[in-house]
Automatic annotation (TrEMBL):
It comes from Calditerrivibrio nitroreducens (strain DSM 19672 / NBRC 101217 / Yu37-1). InterPro entries: DUF4384, FlgT_N_sf. This is DUF4384 domain-containing protein. Residues 142-226 form the DUF4384 domain. Signal peptide: none annotated. Coiled coil: none annotated.
Length: 277
């Protein structure tokens, strides 16, 4: 089987910034409306049903606000993948609630409905005693054509996802790939990508239209406690998954999926390298 060579900067992907129509306060809080509903059984009191409906509406308000926080604050561009994914850990806290309407359903008197207007504040949770991952490269200053290897080690058993982000925002998912689908690693063991037995080689190559003498690029690794379907499918280039200009939702989708995890169930790390002519 012939040797496969992958360039760290072969793609050109354009992503757009999501512009929110919502108005945020100085601390990032936002007003949202939400509906709640509760059903009264034979053992419930009317007061219990009313409170349950309000809790349902508040839960929906937080869920709605978090979605807005993610869309409005995440730069939907591949270069954002190289930054700390702080918005993937955002949760919501209700600061104030106003009742828009409430009452028993006209058709079914066992159903209580409420509409709330809630002021929801973003809260960024810290990770405690979760996954910690170390990421290094064999070289950080490369000349065009140089090969480079990626070294990584986690403190716990986990699943890893390795991305290459070129200077123009181009992204390729290096691991897992069609040749190496198993992305599980053991804790406290150092891994190499690609390893010595692989026929994959990572080489530093300038993009065809790049005019500068130095290009700054990044490797990003995300580790999760459990196996997660983090990345929606783009198109296949060789053994790697890549994303073209039409895949504008990839970063938003990634952040949304990470947001569903608890902060201590995932982590990320980034290293920067430079290519010189």
């Amino acid at each position: 089987m012939g040797m496969k060579t992958f360039s760290l900067g072969i793609l050109l992907i354009a992503f757009f910034i999501f512009l929110s129509n919502h108005s945020f306060s100085s601390d990032g809080s936002i007003w949202v409306e939400s509906d709640g509903v509760a059903y009264m059984s034979e053992i419930d009191t009317p007061k219990e049903v009313m409170e349950r409906a309000k809790r349902d509406a508040q839960s929906r308000a937080i869920e709605k606000a978090v979605g807005i926080f993610i869309k409005a604050h995440t730069l939907v561009s591949n270069s954002q993948l190289a930054e700390d994914l702080i918005y993937a850990s955002v949760r919501g806290k209700i600061e104030k609630v106003e009742v828009v309407s409430e009452g028993w359903d006209q058709k079914d008197r066992n159903i209580y409905r409420v509409k709330l207007k809630s002021l929801v504040k973003p809260v960024y949770q810290e990770r405690h005693e979760g996954i910690d991952i170390k990421l290094t490269l064999s070289k950080y200053e490369l000349k065009e054509g140089d090969e480079v290897k990626i070294f990584y080690k986690a403190n716990k058993d986990c699943y890893i996802y390795i991305f290459s982000i070129a200077s123009d925002g181009s992204v390729t998912l290096l691991m897992p790939n069609s040749a190496m689908k198993d992305n599980f690693i053991k804790g406290e063991k150092t891994y190499t990508f690609p390893d010595d037995s692989s026929n994959i080689k990572l080489k530093a190559i300038f993009l065809p239209d790049y005019k500068g003498d130095i290009a700054e690029e990044r490797i990003k690794i995300i580790a999760t406690k459990k196996k997660e379907d983090l990345i929606s499918l783009g198109f296949q280039e060789g053994i790697f998954q890549v994303y073209d200009a039409r895949s504008t939702g990839m970063i938003s989708d990634l952040v949304r999926k990470l947001n569903l995890l608890e902060p201590d169930e995932w982590t990320d790390a980034t290293v920067v390298y430079r290519i010189k002519r």
